[in-house]
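quick one, 399 residues, struct below
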Amino acid sequence: MSDWTDCVISSEASRDGFASLGIPVYRASTIPFPDAKSYQARHERGEDGYSYGLSGTPTSRSLAQKITALQQGLRTFLVPSGQAAITVSILSFVQAGDRILIADTVYPPLRDFAERDLRRLGIDITFYDPMAPDGLERIICDKTRLIWAESPGSTTMEVQDMARLADIAHRHGALLACDNTWATPLYFKPLAHGADIVVEALTKYFSGHSDVLMGSITVRDQAAAAAIKGKLSRLGIGVSPDDCSLVLRGMETMPIRLQYSSDITKRLLSSIVEQPSVDRILYPALSTCPGHEIWKRDFKGASSVFGIVFTSDATPRVFAALDELKVFVIGASWGGTRSLVAPMPVKANRTAKPWNGEDLVLRVSIGVESFADLRDDLDRFFNYLNRRSIAAIQATQST
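---
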């Protein structure tokens, strides 16, 4: 062969005697076949066969299988983000004329997708109070195809009764899906409590380093798996094996990171709750959080994301106080090594039940920094906030 051809065709090195603790990164779009007959019969290879890179490589399949085992499901599909996991899950099961019941406390981009896209497709959208499952019995009907849960709820942390939701959904011939990103399957397994579909934003605790976007969809039966596989194929959605390798690496330390950040969170909360500028803390492990008893019954632990609601006097000064932080980073997402804060509006994202309280909730995610450094940083934040709040009150009283 010519030099040009030798540059293109590679001989495969022997793997005898070689092994790696890490899953190798397999990159491929084209999958070569040994002969024409094999190529012609490529669709007969089955779910675990390989025919084109879009449907997976050994790297992505390894990650999917690992997640399936944690979720105690039948099969897992990987998509480019947590939001993609949500939208693909919904689009795989609904059509014009169907109804979807969505928890009022879901991830705001899901609400936006429902209002802007699903309604345009002729799908009936109804938001329900996550803390009033009895109300579902009044709004569910034979057109209902899917109930969507997120537990705890986005930002405000309401914990839903998954077994109760599953009973309602299944009695009316509907499916139950749950966004489980806050807890991960280490702390809660929705499929074991009756859900049919569970999604995770692997971007967060799974990857653990704030440097990759990915989502997962895990199902409990073959019919759901076939529906999602077909939808992904028609939409042409796949994931990068390089990104899969990053998530696989992150998963190896996920239990340790979750445990550490959870422990630090509990220690920090004991002082945060005493701050005069704090009205209340939104965190399922606290008895004051809606659904706390359900959390105690069903969950194995609490992750490190919580919300702070401030007093009416302190709320206007929160943004200025955030600039005092030196260790915490102001930014979206959570679950990485760095601690994050994000001021979140709530009222515009509630329609089933009005939000009572200040519109701004500060979402806090604790990373893996030292307790002392995080405590000192929060002290800087609250010292500024409390000082300014007291000064404002005194000024008002003097007038």
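The chain is about 40% helix and 15% strand.
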